Amino acid sequence: MKVLVTGGAGFIGSHTADTLLVRGHRVRIMDSLEPPVHLKGKPDYVPEKAEFIRGDVRVKNDWEKALRGIDIVFHFAAYQDYLTDFSKFFNVNSRGTALLYEVAVEKKLPLKKVIIASSQAVYGEGKYECSEDGITYPAPRSLEQLKRGDWELRCPKCGSRIKMQPTDEARVNPANSYGISKYSQELIGLTLGKRYDIPTTCLRYSIVQGARQSPYNLYSGALRVFAVSIRSGKEPVIYEDGQQLRDYVNIEDVVRANLLALEDSRTDYEVYDVVGGKV
């Protein structure tokens, strides 16, 4: 099949494109090569066997070119950062996803499947249990609490410490513009996909780690920060008390999940966590 991978010059996209080519698919990549992720332009690991289009998911004409003759779409292109340019998260992530379906419907494109990259950021702090008040989904810790050196999440009703629970796909609680924009992508894809018979699957990745992460992108996470510090001859900094927990998943497992979503029709119109399972 002919597969479009948006953000295919990026971390998850490039690994997925490699595997699609190995499995005999024809691959087209659309990527804007936007800094700071691609500070030095197109990476040399982008497979030569893949057709490459430099395009922006915010531009309808770029979508029209990229979707021509396509059967499958892996939509990885997204804006990730910690900056306060809140509107850009929605301009890239939400608008870009809406344009995908807009073009597909207007052009009557026979797409067989769309896989949307979502994020564990849609959960915010996640699911917790209070011994007194039961299950709760807390808001982020306040600045006043952090200044006191009180790192634990607390029950919003009684104020006691709460215990982390496995967070399933049943409820979201995004706490920042990135998380809200990723959840909007899910709603756009699942709602319009069902309405116009475009099978769609949303995958909520945990913190993905592996080769090809951009050293210029702060959103690459703790391991990127540690590696840059060590290579610069500096000691890596661990914030708070070092007892915080995170789920990390290897890029190879993420690619396997991506291909499973493509190949198994039971994933149509569903949302899944893609995690490592250890914290």
Report on the structure:
By secondary structure, this protein is an alpha/beta fold. The protein folds into two domains: 2-124 and 166-209 and 248-274, Rossmann fold (3-Layer(aba) Sandwich); 128-165, no CATH class. 32% of the residues lie in helices and 18% in strands. The chain has helices at residues 11-22, 60-67, 86-106, 143-147, 177-195, 222-231, 251-263, and strands at 2-6, 26-31, 51-54, 72-75, 113-119, 128-130, 134-136, 163-164, 200-205, 207-209, 248-250, 270-274. Strands 3-2-1-4-5-9-12 form a seven-stranded parallel sheet, with helices on both faces. A three-stranded antiparallel sheet has the order 7-6-8, with no helix packed on it. Helix 1 (11-22) links the parallel strand 1 and strand 2. Helix 2 crosses helix 3 (86-106). The longest helix has 21 residues, at 86-106. The radius of gyration is 20 Å and the shape is globular.
How are the SSEs placed, and which strands pair?
Blueprint: E1 2-6, H1 11-22, E2 26-31, E3 51-54, H2 60-67, E4 72-75, H3 86-106, E5 113-119, E6 128-130, E7 134-136, H4 143-147, E8 163-164, H5 177-195, E9 200-205, E10 207-209, H6 222-231, E11 248-250, H7 251-263, E12 270-274
Parallel strand pairs: 1-2, 1-4, 2-3, 4-5, 5-9, 9-12, 10-11
Antiparallel strand pairs: 6-7, 6-8
Helix pairs in contact: 1-7, 2-3, 3-5
